[in-house]
Design a protein that fits this description.
Shape: globular
Structural class: alpha/beta
Length: 571
């Protein structure tokens, strides 16, 4: 299969003598000059070819506009390698907007290995460390477009205090919980929700080495940046023109994320750095000051106009960690976290003893919330009970008070709120109570089960409108999960047989040749066998494309097909 660069050379550029020498070498400067001058003949060639039209033209109000900057960057890419589609594979440093390294320009942006790759990031279990990370490293741009096409959905359910019910229809204002890879889910949302999300709040993996971000030990920092870049770029498209995005991080990656956000949204869209403090003394043995804060980066999509309800910052909260005002419990978080007012029996009052006891005792005994942090007096009280019910116990769960202030400050009633690192679903619960609509995306199996159960068990006062739950319909992703879970070589041999029968193999794979060398495969370690089988899969078919919903090779129910079509109907 030819890559896009070869396609550009053979189909278009060599059809015009201005663009190549007599011996067939490409004259890149002539091509770029023609592009910058909007040469009619060159534009005609590009528009006439479907692949090139899709790659180098953008639709604006029904018209196709030539992206000459991207075209110039593509043609003049000095780091282009015949067998790689990343210009950042072999060189690390600071670059300007055109990809030129620091020695060539004074204007700089953050650059890192595999920056222009797509990290699918399909981890489904928190303790499963994955090696198959840059899955589109060897994909041409037109293939990446197929990877991010809208996907089919399945297993539609409604969850409320009465339990689980099969969903028979989707309503225009339904709240949504989507299980599956959050990158591909975001691209699936784009068709229906582009420009409709008023506020995004995310609490992504901090990349501490001990959290759920388990990709590529060799390039862990670069991997995290690619992982976030892929998701933030499409998230920006979902925001309304006056929308806001808030990203909750700690010191591990927040400074790099700030530069990344400046590049994606623009430095003039940066609104605030919110420092969420939980102060307290450090250990005498520490050779540094204690780190007791997180940082929330706030950006708007527009440089001139964004939602900001400033009075909310100075008003009392409607939400208390001890309960919602007037509805639940007498105690508020401030009663137990303000300096000098923590009663000796605080543990018995607020918590049920559990396996979190040791961690939480240490957390409270070492520090208290700053009296000056009136925004976040409940900052460390993320697991306090609500209406007699203990919080979920999810280790990174954020307090209601924190999420409430952000949602009220950056959106209004009826607006749509998105969290694509949903965790235990606190963003959705608070948004729902505050009369906002919400979309939650989560892919970890254990967490999505906790989230679903929470909607069943919570008091109905917390959920004025019950959500619809659905999943990205798996194709090859199901085989990936089975490969990763296999613990015996014979199981992998069974999967290989199934893969040949039903799986979508990469065009590079010859089953006949592999079977002829079965002994070589058997000599590999179990982990290498897994990596090999995963590499054989077509990465564009991890999930079922919406366009293939009626393909008889997939086992979607008629109800799933019907609701998937309803989901993609523009409303």
């Amino acid at each position: 299969m030819e890559n896009l660069f070869t396609h550009l050379e053979q189909v278009v550029l060599r059809m015009d003598s201005r663009f190549c020498t007599e011996d067939g070498h490409l004259l890149k400067n002539n091509v770029v000059e023609a592009a910058l001058a909007l040469d009619p003949k060159l534009l005609h060639y590009l528009l006439a070819d479907e692949k090139l039209r899709k790659q180098f033209f953008r639709e604006v109000d029904g018209l196709l506009v030539f992206d000459k900057v991207q075209f110039q960057r593509f043609v003049m890419n000095k780091q282009f390698l015949p067998d790689s589609y990343t210009s950042f594979k072999n060189k690390v440093g600071l670059t300007n907007e055109n990809g030129e390294f620091l020695s060539e320009s004074r204007e700089i942006v953050l650059s890192w290995p595999y920056k222009d790759c797509m990290l699918e990031g399909g981890q489904t279990k928190e303790d499963a460390k994955r090696n198959e990370i840059f899955w589109s490293e060897t994909l041409a741009p037109d293939e990446i477009n197929r990877l991010t096409e809208p996907k089919a959905l399945c297993n539609f359910r409604r969850y409320d205090s009465k339990g689980e019910h099969e969903a028979s229809e989707l309503l225009p204002d339904d709240n949504l919980i989507i299980k599956g890879n959050n990158l591909l889910a975001l691209y699936s949302l784009r068709q229906r929700f582009r420009g409709k999300v008023k506020l995004i709040y995310i609490d992504p993996p901090y990349n501490t080495g001990n959290d759920s971000f388990g990709y590529n030990d060799s390039f862990n920092h670069s991997t995290w940046l690619t992982f976030m870049k892929n998701r933030l770029e499409v998230a920006k498209e979902l925001l309304t023109e006056d929308g806001n995005i808030f990203i909750n991080l700690d010191w591990n990656e927040v400074h790099y994320c700030k530069v990344l956000m400046d590049n994606i949204f623009g430095r003039d869209r940066f609104r605030n750095e919110i420092v969420w403090c939980y102060n307290g003394p450090g250990s005498p043995k520490m050779k540094q000051l204690n780190r007791k804060h997180d940082t929330i980066l706030w950006y708007s999509k527009s440089a001139e106009n964004w939602v900001f309800n400033g009075d909310v910052v100075r008003m009392d909260s409607d939400v208390h960690v001890g309960g919602f005002n007037g509805e639940m419990g007498k105690e508020t978080s401030a009663d137990y976290t303000e300096k000098g007012k923590i009663p000796e029996d605080w543990w018995e009052i607020i918590y049920n003893k559990s396996d979190l006891e040791s961690e939480l005792r240490t957390f409270y005994q070492e520090g208290y919330v700053s009296e000056n942090s009136d925004w976040f007096k409940a900052a460390v009280a993320a697991r306090i009970r609500v209406d007699g019910k203990k919080r979920t116990g999810y280790l990174t769960e954020k307090p209601y008070k924190l999420i409430e202030r952000i949602i009220k400050m950056g959106s209004n009633e009826g607006d749509l709120v998105l969290d694509f690192f949903a965790g235990s679903g606190t963003t959705g619960f608070v948004a729902n109570y505050l009369q906002r609509r919400f979309i939650l995306i989560e892919q970890l199996d254990s967490t999505i089960n906790l989230l679903k159960q929470r909607f069943i068990e919570e008091d109905t006062i917390l959920q004025p409108k019950v959500p619809v739950y659905c999943e990205l319909a798996q194709a090859n992703q199901q085989l990936v999960d089975e490969i990763m879970a296999a613990n015996e070589p014979f199981k992998l041999q069974e999967i290989w047989a199934l893969l040949q029968e039903k799986g979508f193999l990469s065009y590079k794979v010859s089953p006949k040749l592999i079977n002829e060398h079965a002994e070589d495969f058997n000599d590999l370690s179990l982990e290498d066998q897994k990596r090999f089988l995963i590499e054989c899969l077509d990465k564009n078919m991890l999930y079922i494309p919406y366009s293939d919903i009626d393909d008889e090779g997939f086992t979607l129910s008629e109800n799933d097909k019907q609701l998937t079509r309803q989901f993609y109907v523009s409303r």
